[in-house]
Amino acid sequence: MPVRWLSSLLLVGVAAASMAADTPHAARGDTRVLRAGDDALQIEVIGTSNKARAAELHRWAAEAADAVLAAFGRFPLHSATVFIEQQPSQARSPVPWGQTSRRDGVAVYLYVRENASFDELRSDWTAVHELSHLFHPYLGDDGRWLAEGLASYYQNVLRARVGLLDEAEAWRRLDAGFGRGRRESSGMQLDELSRRHRGTMRVYWAGAAYWLEADLALRRDGSSLDDVLEHYARCCLRSTSEVRPERFVAQLDAIAGRQVFAPLFRRYARSTEFPSLDAAYATLGIESSADALQFTGRGDAVRLRRGVMGRRATR
Fold first, then answer.
1. Phi (first) and psi of residue 224, to 5 degrees
2. b/e string for 144-171 if b means 16 or more Cβ within 10 A?
3. For the chain, which end, N or C, has fewer CB atoms within 10 Å of the first or last residue's CB respectively?
């Protein structure tokens, strides 16, 4: 049975899907456990004998885990393991490689440049991106754009919620990602790019646009993407399960009680260019220009932007 890799090889900040050799899950380093109610993340630091550095890496992982909790106040899975390995590297990125696997349980692997400072690690998106893959089941190559899109959307939203980004910067980073996605011009359908592991920027950022549009549609009716994924985590998410993307979005619609995810899924999957976000930006009160984003002070738009980027009250 093949190893199921949910996320991607992240080299020098550029995400590309990968298969990888089996990595043992047995504890080998400085291990601590983060708990949220009955749920737990086991964090293991390897590749350093320096206790102060290990503690620093644990503190970084705890911040990333706190960002994940900002979605709905608990970890999406009952248990998962995060391996942080420090390695010598000439990469500019403080976290030149990250991946998430679902084999014999869920594990997130983060490879850290040995001379990366704590501030560099805090400013990096990789850990929150990889941990955000815990919100969905394995979706295969056909659903790769959904999986990577959700992680790309949440890597910005969740970091804003815990103060690792300010709200305006989070919107700017989403917009910059959408800009990178628009530059892909193969003319291929998004689902085909996803299957072929081509068009990385469009796969990731059209996927993020999908989740933004779904989130806004839900918020118009007083719900949110967080609410639907929380319900899904409780009823349906299993650590090593594989779900067809069509089945996944149908389950989300059943939870939402209306057709949001499946119609968007069909439109996006068949698209041959980056989707227009003009309507979404108008709703959010965001105006995009070549120089910068402008945010209107319209009350409903301000509340909506803060609703997306603000931390929810725990229940």
1. -165, 165
2. bbbbbbbbbbbbbbbbbbbebbebeebb
3. N
Domain count along the chain? 2
- The tokens describing 272, both together, are 């041959």
**Residue 254 belongs to domain spanning:** 144-309
Please check whether residues 154 and 284 belong to one and the same domain: yes
The rounded mean pLDDT for the chain is 90
For β-strands 79-87 and 286-288, DSSP reports them as unpaired
How many residues in total does the chain contain?
315
Q: Which two tokens stand for residue 140?
A: 């295969």
Q: Tell me the average pLDDT across 233-245.
A: 92
Boundary of a domain, candidates 114, 135, 156: 135
Looking at the fold, whether 148 and 125 belong to one and the same domain comes out as no
Q: Evaluate whether 35 touches 75 at the Cβ level (below 8 Å).
A: no
Please give the structure tokens belonging to residue 305.
Answer: 């932007």
Q: Which of 104, 135, 166 is the last residue of a domain?
A: 135
For 124, the token pair is 């990096």
